[in-house]
Amino acid sequence: MQTMIEKVVHSDPVETAEKPHELSLRVTDLCKTYITDKQSLNVLRNVNFSMRKGDFVSVMGPSGSGKSTLLYTVSGMDKPTSGDVEFFGQNIAKLGENKMADLRLNEMGFVFQQMHMLRNLSVFDNIILAAYHASVKVSASHRRDINEKAKALMRRFDIIDIMDKDITEVSGGQLQRACLCRALINDPKMIFADEPTGSLNSKAAAEVMDKLNTLNREGATILLVTHDIKVAARTDKTLYIVDGNIQGELELGKYGDTGEAKTREKNLSNWLVNMGW
Amino acid sequence: MHLSILKNDLRRKKSVNLILTVFIILAAMLMGGSSSVLFSTTTAVDHMLEKSNVPDMSIYTFDQPDVVGAVEAWADTSDKIESYRVEDALLMMISAFSRDGRRVVDDKDLVSAFLVAVPENDSKIFNQENQALELSPGEIAIPMGFHKTYDLEIGDTLDIVADGKTTSFVISAYSKDVVFGSDMMASKRFVIHADDFSRFHSQESLDLIKNKIWSVNAKEGVSFEALSNDFSRRAVTVITTIDIATIRQTYLVPMLIATVMIVVSVSLILISFLILRFTIVFTIQEDYREIGVMKGIGIRSKVVRRIYRTKYLAIALFGGLVGFGLSFIYSNIMMRSLNDLFMMDNGVGQIVFTLIGSALVVGLSMLFSSMCTRKINKVSVVEAIRKGNTGERFSKSKRLSLYTKKSLRAPGFLALSDIFNGFRKFLVLTLTFTLGTLLIIVPLNMINTLKDKDEMMKIFGMPPHDVTMMTERAFQVAVTSGQEAIEEEIQEMQNASERAGYPVDLHLEIGYSANIFVDEPDEGMRIDVLQGIRFPIEDYDYSEGRAPIRENEIAVSTMVAETLNLQIGDTVSVQVGQEEYAMLVTAIYSSINNMGMNIRAPEAFVFTSTSPSTISIIGSFETMPEDLEKATAAIKAQNPDISISFEEDEYQRYIGGTVEAIDGMKNLIVVVVLSIIFLITCLIVRMLISREISQIALLKSIGFRCSSLSRWQIGRISIILVLSVAVGTALSLPLSHLLTGSIFGMLGASSVTAVIEPLQVYAVYPLIFLVSTITAVVVSIGQIKQTPVSEINSQE
Ligand SMILES: Nc1ncnc2c1ncn2[C@@H]1O[C@H](COP(=O)(O)OP(=O)(O)OP(=O)(O)O)[C@@H](O)[C@H]1O
Ligand SMILES: [Mg+2]
Question: Which ligand has the shortest distance to the CA of B787?
Fold first, then answer.
C-alpha cells in the first residue's frame, strides 16, 4: 500500500506528465439484466463510455434509469451481464470475487447517499478500518502512520473534532465527509459516488462538493451519480442516461473557483431540458 | 388489505419468519417432549407399581401347614389388612436351568428363582412391549437381565432339571417384572403356563420347593410400615417379605439415571424458553419499521397490532402443532434407554403432558409477541421508522477503539468490538452455550459417579472391601445354628484362601430387621440393624460423633436421625423380634442402604430372639491379587463350595445391566444436546446475519473479502463459544457436586461426591462441543457470500 506522501512524490509528476490521456475507465457494450421472480429487466443496454485519468464525470437521469446500477457494475460491485469494463487497463468484468474485493480495498473508493458506516465503531475507527485491513503486516509503527494519515485527512475535511464521536452523534454533512475520508484512506485510483449529496442540505452538499473538487484538482478521478444540477455543474462532464442508455453527454470543462458556477448551471440545465429532463 | 400485508410480510421476510417458525417448532418439541419425559420418569416407579398391581406387602413362605396357618391367622384377624390373596409358587435354585445339557448359570451365583404361573391378579408381569404376559403350554418367559447375561434368545430351548428329570421349555418372551426386575434383586421370577405349573406343583419334589405367595393390602390410612411391623411382631418364619418400600429401593439406580434425564429435560425446557423469547423479540424488532410506516399512513395502532398478532398466532399455532407431533419422536428417543429399566407410562398422561408443553410454547409465543407489540401503541411513527431496527445505541464509554488495538487485524477487531459493544444480542447464544456445556458435562459427571465402584459401594453401606465370600453352609448355619457356626465357616474360608496363596482377612456383616421408635411402637419405622462381627467398629465412616462401643449404644443413619429428629446423646427404642432395647445414639453416618433406613450396633450387642435377615462375609486381601480369575480358581481348588465375588462382581450385581443403559444414555444425551445446540446456533447465526446484511455489504464495498468477513463472523461466535464453554466447564464442577450431593443426600448418603474424569470433562467433551458448534457457524454463514454489495441500501 502506498502512503499519500509517496504518491505525491513520485506518481504524480511521472504518470500525469508522461501519459496525460491515459484511460482510467473504459466501458464497452455494457449490459445488465436483472432476473426477478418471473420477468427479466434490462436495466443497462449497451452502455459505452470512457474516462481519462483525472476526469470528474457525473451521471444524471430520471429515477430508475439505471444510474446506480451503472455505478455498481463499472466499479465491480456487481457483475455485468455482458460487456467489458476496463479499469486502468485491467478488464474487471470477469474478475473473481477476491480479486474484486482487493481492487475495491486498494484502488477504489466509494461514497453512498446513505452514508453507510459501521454502527459499532467510532467515526475515526470507521475511517481507518479499511487501511488496517489492507496492510499486510501488523506493526505498531505502521498503524501509527495510518492513524496520522487519517487525522490529516480529517483535518483537511474539517472534521477532526468528531473523530471520537459515535456515528449517530454527528451531522449528515460531517458524516458524508467522514465517508469521503474513508474512501480516500487507501489512496484509491478512482472514487465512485452514488448521490453523495442526496441526503444533505445545500450548504452541507456544497461543502462535500468543495472537497471533491479539490481532490479532483489534485488529480483524483471521480465518477459520480446525482440528481442535483448544482452538483453536476461542478463536474467536467455529464452523462445523461435514460432507460439504461446513454442519451448524450455534455462537456463543461474543469470547474474553477470563480463565479462561473451560475453559467455552468444554466448551460447544464438548458441541455438537460433538451434531453427531456 | 390486512391479509395482503401479511402475505407480503411472510414472503418478503422469508428467512426470518422461517427461522422463527423453526424455533417455535423446536421449542414446542423440546418443551412437549421434555415435559412428557419429565412426567414419565418421575412417575415411572409408581406407574409400574400401579400397573402391575403390586400389593402393599408380599410375603413368600414355605408351603408348610404351621407357617400357612400362622400367616392365615394373622391375615384374617389383623385390623390393618383390607384384603389378601394367596398363590402357589415353586422355589428352585437358578442353577437348575440348563441348555444343551449344560448348566446355564455357574454355581457362583447362589441365587434362588421362583417358578410361577402367569400371575393373573397381583404383581403382574409384562412383556417387552409392556403388554400383559401371555404364554402357551411349553413356553417360558425369562427376565430381561437373564436374557442379556446368558445370551438366551427368544425361540431358544431352556430346560429345567429337577429330581433328575428334564423338562424343556421354549423361551417366548423377556419379562418385565416390577417386583424382581431390578438388578439389585437377586431372586427372579420365571413364568410358565398354568398347566405346566400345576403339573410341576402336583409332584413331590426335592428340587422344586413348594411356596406360597401372600399378597396383602393395607386398609385405607394404614401405612405399609405399620403393616409390616404388625406382621413382624408375629415372628413367622418367611422366605422373604417384600413391601413397596423395598421395591422402590431396588429401583434406586434406575431412579438416579432417571434423575439425570430429569435434569436434562428441565435444562432443555429452559433453553427453549430462552430461544423462544429471543426469536420473537428479534423478529418483532424486524417489523418495527413497517409498523411505523403503517401508523404513518394512518392505520390505527389497534389494527396494526391485530395484524401482527394474527401473524404470530398463525406461526405459533403452526409451529406448536408440528412441534407437538415431533415431540413424540423426541421423547421416544430420550426414553428408549429408560424403557429397559422401567415400564414407562405411554398412555394418556404422556400425551397430556406433551400437549401441555407444546401448548405452553404457543401461549408463551403469543405472550411474548403481545408484550413486544404493545410497544406499538407507545412508539411514535417517527421513532418506529427511524429506530427501525438499527438496534441499541451504544454508550460511548464502553466502546472499544480500533486505533488502540495495535496488534489486532480488522476481522478480529470487528469480532471483538461486536461483542464488546453489543453483547446483548449474544446473550442468548452465551446462555445457550453455557447451558449446553453444563448439559453435557453435569450428566457426564453424574453418570461417571454411578459407574464408579468405590463411590457406589459407599451407597450400599458397605465398608471398603475387596471380596465377598459365601458358602451354602454359611447360609444355612446363619439361620439354624447362630453366630459361632458362621465364625467357624469363616475361619474355614480364610484357611482355604491362605492355602491357595491369597491370605485374606474376612469378617461377618449381619443385618436384622427391626422397628425403631421414640415413644410409640406404632409410630416406629422398619429399619435394618447392621452389625459387623470381628471388625473394629471405629473403621466404619461416621459423619458425626464417635463409634458405638457399649452394648446400649448405636449409630444411626442421617435418614433415621432426620426422620426421628434424633441428636447424638438421644435415646431411642429398638424392637428386634419380641425384645425391646433402649439405645443411646453416639454417632450419625450416611448410608442409602435400605433407603437409608438403618442403624449400626456394636458387636457387644447380642441379639437373642431373632435370626439375621441378611448376612454377608466380606474382607480384604493382604495384597490384592492381580489376576482375579486365577485367584478364584486357586481358592476354589482348596474348597469348591466357596463362592467368591470381587467388588467388581458386586457392583455388577447391583448396577450390572444398568451400566449398559447408563452408557447408552450418556451417548444419547451428548448426541441430542449437540444436535440441538447445532440447530440453535445455525438459526441464531443466520438471524444475526440477516440483520447485518447491509453492514456486510458495506464491508464488501470497501474491499473485505468473503474470507475476511467469515473470519469476523466465526471469530466473534468462537470468542463467545470459548468463553461460554469455559464458564460452563467451570460451573459444572460445583454444580455436579451440588446435584450429586443433593440427590444422594435425599436418599440418605451425604458422603457421595461427584466423580470427575478430568480428561473427559475438561478436554474431550468441551472440544467435541467446540468443534460441533463452530461447524454449525461455518455452515450458517453462507449468506455472506451471497450478499451482493447492492444490499448496502437494504432496509435492514
Ligand atoms: N437487485 C435488483 N433486482 C431487480 N431489479 C433491480 C435491482 N436493482 C435495481 N433494479 C431495477 O433496476 C432499475 C434501475 O435501478 P437503479 O437503482 O439503477 O436506478 P437509479 O437510476 O439509480 O434510480 P434512482 O435515481 O431512483 O436512484 C430500476 O427499475 C430497479 O427497479
Ligand atoms: Mg440510485
Answer: 1
